[in-house]
Amino acid sequence: MSSVIENTQAIQFYRPDYHVKTPDMRSPEYVQMSTAAAITLGLIPGKMHRTACTHCLNLLVTYPEGCRANCAYCGLARHREEARDYADRNFIRVDWPTVRYQDVLARVKAGADRGQFQRMCISMITHPSSDADTFVLLEQWMALLPHIPVSILSNPTTMEKADLIALKRLGAEIFTVALDAATPTIFERTRGKSVDSPHRWEKYWQAIEWAAEVFGPERFGVHLIGGLGETEQEILGVCQRIKDMGGHNHMFGFYPEQGSLMEDWPAVAHGQWRRIQLARFLIDYAGGHISSMAFNAAGQVLDFGLPADRLADIIRSGKPFQTSGCPGSDDAEISACNRPYGDSKPSDILSFPFALNELDIEMVQRQMAGELAQKT
């Protein structure tokens, strides 16, 4: 059987020419997993730029008919049905191979990941079977691998409070909501009726409130995408609201997904993104508060509200600029879910999936300062 080599800049791997999706490949028997997770499990031989693996096994429920939502920035959006087979669509910039779930369980149980996984995450999509199948996947995982905690990346549109209670009872540790948009207007433009999608701002916030009540402090989080048209002050206002509720903020920089409705929208500006990352980290982990920060008329951060020497130490640590997500077992400030190159190319990294070195930190500092100086 012949093989071809693919070079995506982030990873290099060989993949057989038999990647065919059939109607029988559906959850809960099958799941999709991120390329980084597949490499870590040894399902795909390959390597990633400057990082050996991911510490989170990211799984995605899967159905040949695909997601029924139509989010403007998403590679899984319904409008792409005619353009590309669902199984071959990329999601957050990378391929998601389809594998049998029992094979995944067996390989993790046997240590195929060499003990790298500190967390597993089940990502839901908008599909009639997604809720029930997520329960099945979670229950099977906890029966075999209870020592590896599980996060749920939810689909609030199809869920009720009883579903969150059931997920926690079955063993889910963290519940997250991909709010993504920082304002009701942007949410509606990218995820609501304007793009013929079923999601509603009010329902998403209801799910966040349920999560705060059911899962409790430090056990729920919100995904936000920087660069959808919001100001820095607007997205940081959401970060502060989530922190005040007891949750954490998981940040993604916007990168135009090929084939999405926003494929021509520019990627998030470097300066904007670095200031958001730093301020988010201060709010979540360093006692910062948006009320202590100063913003210009364009909503850009002018002052982070911390003494200069303390702020410099935090920047030099590099932690604010690493991928933010659910925590691992080593350091609560460092995400187990490092999502290698999920929002950028390795030649121009937005979210670092590894610890920054001195050259990385110098580049980040130039990006923060340069763009702000041009716009003020």
How would you describe this protein?
The chain has 376 residues and is α/β, with parallel strands linked by helices. It has one domain: Aldolase class I (TIM Barrel, Alpha-Beta Barrel), CATH 3.20.20.70. The chain is built from 10 helices and 13 strands. Strands 6-3-5-7-8-9-10-11 form an 8-stranded mixed beta sheet. The chain has a 3-stranded antiparallel beta sheet with strand order 1-2-4, with no helix packed on it. A hairpin with a 3-residue loop joins strand 1 and strand 2. The longest helix has 18 residues, at 358-375. Mean pLDDT is 89; it is low at 1-20 and 82-92.
Set down the secondary structure blueprint.
Blueprint: E1 3-7, E2 11-16, E3 30-33, H1 35-40, E4 46-48, E5 56-61, E6 98-100, H2 101-109, E7 119-123, H3 130-144, E8 150-154, H4 161-170, E9 174-180, H5 184-191, H6 201-214, E10 220-226, H7 232-245, E11 248-253, H8 270-285, E12 294-295, E13 301-303, H9 308-317, H10 358-375
